[in-house]
Structures are given as structure tokens and as C-alpha cells.
Amino acid sequence: MTKSKDGKADDNGPRQAMLGPTSADAAGEDFTDARGRRWIVVGKVVPKEIDVAETEKERRNADDYSPPGPDPRTLSREDLAEKLRPRRLVGDYEYRLEQPDYEIAEKILAMKEVPNTEGSPGSASAFAKLKFIITPEFVIGPDDRRRLDNPRFLPGSAYAYLSQTCTATMIGPSTALCAAHCFYQNGWITSRSITFGADTVAPTAPFGSFLADSLTLPGAWNNTEWDWDFAVLEFSPTRPDLGRQTGWFGTGQNFNGAKTMIGYPNDKPVPSPWIRSGAFTAAPGSRYEHNLDVIPGDSGAGVYDNGDNRCNGIQSTQWRTTNPPRVWNEVRRWDATTHNFFAAYGNWPRL
Fold it and tell me: pTM of the full predicted structure?
């Protein structure tokens, strides 16, 4: 861990300490992290058996629509800190910060421009070749999804299939992004495996299958407020250099231009990765509407810019109205809130 001049941990230093309880710590005990923050054990968790893709088939009509809330940066320091006070799952135990983290709220409110982070090709030096396959509800216009051949290479190697039917994306050597609803819907959801580069064609798990050492999401996430639908997957200390095998995407706040997403939709052979392109079409607060084709199973996937390969959003939800008839998809956009949350509760960014 590197330190700044005042002796505190430096969020941007290489190989910083994990900031909170992980599977390497004593499970079920209160914990003080490297920055002096106290984590309190809420209790032992009995996860629910939920197929996230099935829950997505049942929802998203106009009656359930949750309009975008205010941009988190319009909240007061106190309200923002409370909204972000994290919920963390480590092994069988849930932890919460004892007090709101006012430092992260101050960083978010003070950040004038979100810094870019760089990606890495990992051990795979070539991008996979794409084979075009045509194949239906939250597909907008013609279905332009294509099956991704050889996902053991970038870009597919940085995307993972989650056993509860979701997708995650590496953004650092040991850190991945995903959607909060893939792990918590009025209680924690059972997750049995995370498999990067997964495919029905051999090699089916080129980097192995495992679970994250810790999972952290904002305490404000309650399965209805989609502005808080993001989660940090941290694979250190047991796999601190996973991303050096899979490669990872950078992050950035460029919302213009062509976008691409890879996901594991459940209307295709499971698990098989499918790639599609499109664009963000509107910017309501912290959520962006887009026209990329999304199917249950794609939730949690990072959407990256075709120009610089930086993730600009996390696939979150889909909506429909009948009068007038319209379907649209939404990402939780990458901004000062997500950047600082990942820096505070993951071993990220790290070179």
C-alpha cells in the first residue's frame, strides 16, 4: 500500500490494502480496516435461490417504473454518505460500516472531472474474431447480437458469467463491476460461481470458476431505486492478479459515440457470450437510456466505448410502456459516485 504525505492510504497507489473485511479475515467478527473504518457484522446470511434472469422477465412495465432520482452530486454531504454506506458480503456474513463514510461523499462532491483509468490486455494479446448470427422483448430494432468466438481472448475474457444468470466485467487487476440487483433483492442471492471467458465451447472456463473474496454495494440499493444499482466485486487477496490473466477495461465518462456490450443472455445457449453495439440515447440523471439489445442475463455487464475501450456504464434495467408502446434499456452511468465508491471499497484502481 502506498501512502500520501499525510500518511493515509493512497487510493491510486499500486497494490493498496483491501479496505474492509475479506475472506482472508476472521469471518463473523467486527473489523477495522486499513483506513480506520469500523465494519460491524450484521449477521450470518442465508442466501435466496433466485435466477436473476427470471425476475427480469416479470418486471419493467410502466406501473413499476422508478423515475430517475436526482444526480447523487445534488445531495448533501450527509445524505450522500448515508445513501452510499456500504453493505458487504464476505463468505456467509454481511457487514455494514458502523458510521457513514463522509470522506467518500466529500470526494464525490469535490470531483470536477472523473479521471479515466486504463485497461490492460492481460495474458491474451489478440481480440477475438466475431461470427455473425441473427436471432427477441428489449431488442430494439433488428436483433444485431453476434456470438463471440474465443472468449478466452479480449474482449470476452474480461467478461464473466455468474451462476445466478448475470454478467460482470473486470476493470482492474482484481476488481470487477456488476449490478447490485444481481446479488441483492430484498435479501442476498445465492451465487455459486463466477467464470470469466465462459462458453459452451471448450475451453468452457479458461481461467477457472470461483467466487469473489468480497462483494460491496451501496446501502441505498433496495431493488427499486435504480440509481444505486452497482456493485464492487473484489478478488483480492486470493486472486490479486486475476485481471493480468483476463485483461480488464479502463473506465471513463465519455457518453458520446458508439458503444459495445458483451453479456450472457438466457435466450441463447448458457453460458455463451454475445456482443452487440449501439449508443446512449438520453441522460436522465445517473441513468442513461440506450438502444443496445438486452436480454435477461446481460445485467451487470459493462458497456464500453468503441473508441477507447473504457467502460462508461453498467447494464441495469429495462422498461416498457403500452401507451404509447415503447421499450428501452438503461445503464447506471459511470460518474464521480461510482468512481469513488469503487476506489473506496475495492482494491482499485491499481496498476
Answer: 0.89
